[in-house]
Automatic annotation (TrEMBL):
Presence of the UniProt keyword Ion transport in the record: yes
Keyword Transport among record annotations: yes
Organism of this sequence: Dyella humi
Protein name (Swiss-Prot/TrEMBL): TonB-dependent receptor
InterPro entries to which the protein is assigned, alphabetical: Beta-barrel_TonB, Beta-barrel_TonB_sf, Plug_dom, Plug_dom_sf, TonB-dep_rcpt-like
A family per Pfam: TonB_dep_Rec_b-barrel
Tree of life domain: Bacteria
Family, per entry: Belongs to the TonB-dependent receptor family.
Residue intervals of the TonB-dependent receptor plug domain: 64-175
Compartments in which it is found: Cell outer membrane
Its membrane topology: Multi-pass membrane protein
Signal peptide range: 1-25
Length: 765
């Protein structure tokens, strides 16, 4: 069909809005609206599903064990969605640590691993991995969420556990798939989101705002389809940290008496990390149908982040003037950041619905520029030293390739569906820190202050058969062989340079899931799997200093080996379902970081070690039901209990004689729960009240951090959110909500946002 004047006008409109968005440096992120009631979170059965569309679905075999899904319509109706990761806010047992709007470090915690385990969960956009397996930490290890526009989301699937051979051992925590959509007709969406947080803690008080503008456009012209998005964000955060000291700086007043997480004196001197963030996200998906069953596609995403972090001192000197009290922590909390990242991917897929199908997906992610620079120390009063440090990740990158095929030996609906695949990846870390002559000028870099670099590569082969043993029995049997290598490790600090030894490892991971449909509404699934996670290049070679803590690499880490099992019983209802899952996981040589005072080091040192044996076992209860008591009332929720225990740990280091044996694994709360109530009085309105709960968790391996509500602690919290969505007409929709309605003040190491008001206006043409 030739382009029409209306088509050309629709194509021109997003370009005009994109230019305006870039100029404003503000972005909007929200999920797709729908005039129809949103689908509920449902547990999906392990069956093959094909849709009548010209866009081939992802080829990865159906996940055989527990999974849940949330649709774009449900996101619109229930969530104050600003960033892409907000879409998973109420998924069972899932917590994403989002400290502020536009956070660059939102890592995922699953039912058996905490927020320090970024490399134990995989995240994909369609078939593109956006997990940053360059590290297993809360900084550069977070998924690259900015590589997709929220309005491109069709639905989000969460797959629990490492039970599919198609995924690497990093799936031991689970796999999240963000599935995008492509409009079949010209479409333009424009959104504006405004948020304001009212914050009051210690002596820091204020209102911190976020403004976000986004534009998406898409459509299809014959064999060619496309979907592009642009969003810009301008955000001011609450303090992300507080500056503390074991004493009161001499000659000052204003110190607030306080303790740290282990009960030692940690008086509060001021606030840090008052971050002003300006982000720009550009992304596009372009596909061409070579034949009705063969499609080629190209994805591209560009992410730009510029920010400035300020500090606020509570101290005054004898003359009443503000001062930093000679605390160097003020210097490390006052910094600039500047980053440009580029993601690209190519794919070739078939969807014959016949005996054979295949796909090839190649991706590359590049830190074109990623700098943070700050003063080296403090001077008199509220001044900094003229010199400083610049830490860079420029040149850090990774590439992946996946070749997959499916053979349906007895036809499309036959008893066997055999999947095979080959995988390769390479992760390269480049993390030098330079001395700056003038700390506010990153071009004044001179000599090398510290450095960490290295590379890891992995090659894998896998096979899996979904075998319909009988009408009510489905067995999924598979295995994955992986070969891993670490090389080119280098560290530099002071005047010492070390070329680290290379490492090699390989292993085979069998997988088995058996599903029995005991009755039309009763389903029982038993799963068992082995998973192997190899060390990330940052765990092996990264060398950094953060405030008063020094992070040391460990080039001798061994892979961690995980044995997982789950028994899930599900009962479907006319308007919902209930599920109970019993799970257990035993991990040998678990790579977990610890912080301790070591000989010859003036500051605490954080380092990864292999913990001999860890056991996670628990139960997850999930329920979902529509039209409860009255028409239009939807209730859903989950409760998860985990007994996460360190069984043995010969590598634990303690300066006080404590032990970690028998203690709870760090960052894993015993209890976690969600509850969501949505009422739809009419098709146009949806009102949601939701709650999230997290129980006690520790951040030390000997569980000595028992002081709550202080900087560095990991607190129990109950947070309620309110959301109202109104579909004004076919083109316009609006929403208003309040996050942390009850204004709970809590820390997850960082102080978390207090009551925040969010409003959104969306226009779709």
């Amino acid at each position: 069909m030739p382009p029409t004047p209306r088509t050309n006008a629709l194509a021109a409109l997003p370009l005009a809005m994109l230019a305006s968005s870039i100029a404003m440096a503000q972005t909007n992120q929200d999920a797709t609206t729908s005039a129809h009631p949103p689908k509920k979170t449902t547990t999906l059965a392990p069956i093959s599903v094909s849709a009548p569309t010209r866009v081939p679905p992802g080829l990865a075999p159906d996940f055989p064990a527990t999974q849940v899904s949330v649709t774009a319509a449900q996101i619109d109706a229930t969530i104050n969605a600003v960033d892409v990761e907000d879409a998973a806010r109420y998924m069972p047992s899932i917590f994403i640590r989002k400290r502020n709007m536009g956070d660059t470090q939102p890592v995922i915690a699953t039912r058996n691993w905490g927020v320090n385990s970024s490399a134990r969960t995989l995240v994909y956009v369609d078939d593109i991995p956006i997990s940053a397996l360059i590290a297993d930490n809360n900084t550069i290890g977070a998924p690259r969420w900015g590589m997709v526009s929220p309005d491109q989301i069709d639905h989000v699937d969460m797959l629990y556990g490492p039970y599919s051979a198609a995924y690497a051992g990093n799936a031991m925590g689970g796999v999240m798939h963000i599935v995008t959509r492509t409009p079949d007709k010209p479409e333009v969406t424009i959104q504006q989101t405004e948020a304001i947080q009212s914050y009051d803690f210690y002596n820091t008080r204020g209102n911190y705002s976020t403004s976000q503008t986004s534009v998406t456009a898409g459509g299809r012209n014959g064999k060619f389809s496309w979907f592009v998005g642009a969003s810009g964000l301008n955000s001011f955060s609450q303090p992300l940290s507080y500056i503390t000291s074991g004493s009161t700086p001499a000659g000052t007043t204003g110190t607030i008496p306080a303790l740290n997480k282990v009960g030692q004196t940690a008086n509060v001197l001021g606030a840090g990390g008052l971050l002003h963030t300006r982000q720009l996200n550009l992304n596009g998906k372009f596909a061409y149908d070579i034949t009705p069953w063969l499609q080629a596609a190209y994805w591209v995403g560009f992410w730009s982040n510029h920010g400035q972090s300020r500090v606020q001192s509570y101290l005054t000197n004898a003359q009443g003037a503000p001062t930093y009290g000679k605390s160097s922590a003020f210097a490390s909390n006052d910094y600039f950041v500047s980053a440009h990242h580029l993601m690209q991917a190519l794919s070739l897929k078939t969807d014959t619905k016949g005996d054979f199908d295949g796909s090839l997906v190649i991706t590359h992610y590049d830190f074109i520029k990623d700098n943070q620079w700050s003063p080296y120390g403090v001077g008199s009063n509220t001044t900094f030293t003229p010199n400083g440090l610049l830490a860079s990740y420029g040149g850090t990158n990774w590439s992946t390739a996946d070749l997959q095929g499916i053979w349906r030996s007895q036809g499309y609906s036959g008893a066997h569906e055999i999947s095979v695949g080959a995988h390769a990846d390479q992760y390269t870390l480049a993390n030098p820190t330079y001395n700056l002559t003038h700390w506010q000028d990153p071009s004044s870099a001179t000599s090398l202050y510290a450095a960490g670099r290295g590379e890891t590569t992995t090659h894998a082969l896998w096979i899996q058969d979904a075998w319909q043993l009988a009408p009510n029995w489905l067995a999924t049997i598979g295995g994955r062989y992986e070969k891993w290598r670490a090389s080119d490790g280098f560290n530099f600090s002071g005047k010492t340079a070390i070329y680290q030894p290379g490492e090699n490892a390989s292993d085979f991971s069998p997988k088995l899931t058996l599903r029995w449909d005991a009755a039309p509404t009763w389903h029982i699934t038993a799963s068992a799997a082995k998973a192997v996670r190899f060390p990330t290049v940052a765990e092996l070679y990264q060398l950094v200093a953060t405030g008063a803590t020094f992070t040391s690499p460990n080039p001798n880490l061994k892979p961690e080996r995980d044995l997982s099992g789950e028994l899930a019983v599900e009962h479907t209802l006319d308007d919902g379902f209930v599920r109970a899952s019993l799970f257990q996981e035993n991990t040998r040589n678990a790579m977990i970081s610890q912080t301790s005072t070591l000989p010859n080091y003036a500051v605490p040192v954080t380092f990864f070690t292999n913990v001999g044996a860890v056991r996670n076992r628990g139960i997850e209860l999930v329920a979902d039901h529509d039209n409860v008591l009255v028409q239009g009332l939807e209730l859903s929720g989950s409760v998860t209990f985990v007994d996460s225990t360190i069984l043995s740990n010969d590598n634990f280091v303690s300066s006080t004689g404590t032990t970690s044996n028998g203690k709870h694994v760090p960052y894993v709360p015993r209890w976690r729960a969600t509850a969501v109530a949505t009422y739809r009085p009419t098709p146009a309105w949806a009102f949601t009240l939701a709650g999230r709960y997290s129980g006690k968790q520790y951040s030390t391996m000997d569980n000595t951090d028992n002081t709550a509500d202080v900087m560095g602690s990991f607190d129990t919290f109950v947070v309620f959110d309110l959301h109202a969505n109104y579909q004004i007409n076919e083109q316009w929709s609006a929403s208003f909500g309040i996050d942390n309605l009850n204004n709970r003040q809590y820390f997850l190491y960082h102080p978390f946002p207090q009551r925040t008001y969010v409003a959104n206006l969306k226009f779709r043409l």
